[in-house]
């Protein structure tokens, strides 16, 4: 099979101009056919007759009675950021440990042996300059902070990166921007004013709890 695929690829490369012309012609023909048919494009994906589609239909029908509804991935990302829930690889990096996220139970409470225990007690794990997850509250208007922007010391101090913004959105529920970041010794810097540096521009922010919405958990446990 691979032999025939190789020969087909070689032929397509030798006749690349013809192949490109054929594909462009097919694309133009498909667009012309769709336009002539008068159909409207949409981004709704349904699979009639499946159990998953039936469940989606039931949810769409019943949720409004409870003040709910279906939502997309972008809404999900905003909702989780409002509660300070992380996305691994986005709000963490290869050095992040549980206690950097405020999860100190395994490190402080467990006395038995478990996989990963040695790593949690290495000298680097207790470095006071470890990057830790915090929230960032803007103080200069309603623009969300740029994701990836560097966090630097406050005004009057030499500029050097102390971390970066990992997630940033405008929260419709709070009617203001919210952001998460990994910052050196962040958990001990609550209330501190820091600078946010991005593409030559500098803004101000305050280090706050990563939980921006319902910090007491009343709605979550209602």
Plain-language structure description:
With 222 residues, the chain is of the alpha+beta class. It has a six-stranded antiparallel beta barrel. Strand 5 and strand 6 form a beta hairpin. The relative contact order is 0.12.
| CATH C-level of the largest domain | Alpha Beta
What is the N-to-C succession of helices and strands?
Answer: HHHHHHEEEEEE
Overall body shape: extended
CATH H-level superfamily of the largest domain: Probable tRNA modification gtpase trme, domain 1
SSE blueprint and pairings:
Layout (H helix, E strand, L loop, with lengths): L1 H13 L1 H22 L13 H12 L10 H10 L22 H4 L8 H4 L10 E8 L11 E3 L10 E9 L4 E9 L8 E6 L2 E8 L14
Helix pairs in contact: 1-2
Tags for this model:
single chain, 6-stranded antiparallel β-barrel, 6 strands, alpha+beta
Task: Offer a quick outline of the entry.
This protein is α+β, with helices and mostly antiparallel strands and 222 residues long.
